[in-house]
Amino acid sequence: MFSRVFALVAAGLIAVASLAPSAAFAQDAASAPAAATQEAAPAAVADAAATGGKVAVENPYGLMNLIKNGHAVDQVVLVILLIMSAGSWFITFTKLWDQSKLGKEIKEAREVFFKKSSLAEGVKVLREGSAVRYIAQTAVEAGEHHEGTLTENVDRNSWVTMNIERAVDEVNRKLSSGLGFLATTGSTSPFIGLFGTVWGILNALTAIGVAGQASIDKVAGPVGAALIMTAIGLVVAVPAVIGYNWLLNRNKAVMADVRAFAGDLHGVLMGSRQVKR
After folding, report:
1. Residue 230 to residues 61, 122, 234: CA-CA distances in angstroms?
2. For the whole prediction, is pTM greater than 0.70?
3. What is the DSSP letter of 9?
4. Which contiguous run of DSSP H or E holds residue 114?
5. Which has more pLDDT, 264 or 27?
6. H-only helix segments in the chain
7. Which residue from 162, 109, 118 is spatially nearest to 139, judged by alpha carbons?
């Protein structure tokens, strides 16, 4: 009896001894992640402190991700909107420069042109290649070459008037060039952005259908791209519309001064039957 009890106790001690290393190993394995976490925690805190308490996280649904990893259709839409935006700003600044330049030329012409003793001398003082000089030269040449040609069938007053109006219309045409692009950009860029929106929603629905469930990772990316396209379309359209209306009103003011100069020139030319050399 005693020998049996002793044998059972010995067997139990051997079993406990064999399990002890495994338990210790499990405890060490469980404590290892905690220790690693405790060691990594100061580094994370230090990084957060270095960045002002904010940890930088890359937005997987932002514009940069759309540019890098977006669908070909999304990137084509972005390129089109970029071209339209760049063209709108370029036209806005160049037309503003042309308007300011023409307004200055008109002001200078009124100060010096009509103070000369003859139209020929007045034309010479105008800036070479300017729109004002082009109108003045056209008017003078129309008055000089009226007689002895087929234009004699038209009276001199009507002939000079027609040539001055044509010159003024030519100046207006050059000054207004490019405004059509602004109008087109302002009216079409929202629809181009809307196309990108529709395409993004279509991709979202397709991803949901393939996955069989409406998980956030299947929806957020395409819908985020769709909203970005809408926003970019509006950002392109609004400056184009504002620039178009602003330049159009400035054109009207500048061309009013040009037509006033042309009217005065016509009156002076009709009062002189012959241009003095």
Report:
1. 15, 56, 6
2. no
3. H
4. none
5. 264
6. 2-50, 63-69, 72-112, 119-125, 131-144, 156-176, 179-211, 216-271
7. 162
